[in-house]
Amino acid sequence: MTVRVRLPVHLRRLARVDGEVTVEVPGEVTTDAVLGALERRYPVLRGTIRDAATGRRRAYVRYFACEQDLSHEEPDSPLPARVADGSEPFLVVGAMAGG
Amino acid sequence: MTGVRVLVGTRKGAFVLTADGTRDNWEVSGPHFGGWEVYHVAGSPADPDRLYASQSTSWFGQLIQRSDDGGRTWNAVGKDFTYEGDPGTHQYYDGTPVPWEFKRVWHLEPSLTDPDLVYAGIEDAGLYRSADGGGSWQELPGLREHSTGDTWQPGAGGLCLHTIMQHPTDPQRLYIAISAAGAFRTDDGAKTWKAINRGLVSDGIPDPDAEVGHCVHRLAMHPARPDTLFMQKHWDVMRSDDGGDNWREISGNLPSDFGFPIAVHAHEPETVFVVPITSDSEHYPPQGRLRVYRSRTGGDEWEPLTAGLPQEHCYVNVLRDAMAIDTLDDCGVYFGTTGGQVYLSPDSGDTWSPIVSNLPAVLSVEVQTL
């Protein structure tokens, strides 16, 4: 499946991309699967969104999609169908803190 | 010598300041990695176009950037700082055990001879080495495995390994310092380490002969005299003439012996610079007057250097990695402040002027003499 991903500006600069990116996700579209595809395509992002060793989401990062906060969903549970079919993006968001 | 390049790390990015040998007119490039904390930028003595930068935020973690063209372009390299084996615990502020946990890279120290070899000092205190230009990092675990390692406690800024100094001719000897464990020396290429804190006295430690637990803020050394070390401790300015085995206080007539950076003149091994700060709870200059103090006697006797520095209403700090020395014939001294100024003295401290005045808070300053 082709999934749209919207990254915060710091990660867009790191990955050297503008606007949304798309990634090909084999199999079921879950948070882990999307982030895995993203990290394979942009290795510099490995460790910036989730811990490289444990896979745990970094404390100041949230996941949104379809007007929902999915940050606390199981990372291997399916994302909404509208993310999986590409009609809505999966948002990686830097928490509003400090600055 | 054709010029100088000043590498500035700040709370919101890195800046590269360049000038010819007159140091009159400066070109400012940056921010590089805008919005990210850059704890340190360092250049290779063996290849001045090879730079390394430590880039991090609480949001997205740690990156290491490398430039092969003097800071014009950068590429992210390796950032895996995994401890060797099971690191166990050290102590939290209250003395309870806490697991070792990587937080950030404080300091990068490129090899004197090999552009691809670079050391990194991290929080929680660990020493790492890359032999492939930062592509991969391996811990040198002998330091953390020192017999006292499980007793180390953080300073206010964290349990950070902030100073790495290489002996100019003996690659087996390194000096490092950790807040608040103290100073350590290896003579076997980082396999084993000796705590070198004899003579340090710290109010926060009940045992006056404590081997570790001292909040060393910074070490400095002149390459012509690698057995003579200078130290700015939390309180006290100290000196050793035997490679750190024994220290004596040289605070002398300083208005305060609290401070962070310390540096040695490029051509005068007995000329030392410090920036006194009021106290551990008041991190700004005494009386709101920004004064660098210079000793031309290797310590004990200090003179204030004020020409060109603000002498009223100045409440900035100068952090431990934010002072540097160039090696031009007229030795240049540089420091950056938490107020975003980078000052230069082109005459060994006699007169000062700002190169830039409104950067983000400066975390580190290094200078390359090109």
TrEMBL record, chain B:
Hey, what's the signal peptide range on this chain?
none
Query: What's a GO biological-process term for it?
Result: xyloglucan metabolic process
The record ties this protein, via InterPro entries, to: WD40/YVTN_repeat-like_dom_sf, Xyloglucanase_GH74
Q: What is this protein called?
A: BNR/Asp-box repeat protein
In its UniProt entry, the species of origin is given as Actinophytocola xinjiangensis
Lineage summary = Bacteria, Bacillati, Actinomycetota, Actinomycetes, Pseudonocardiales
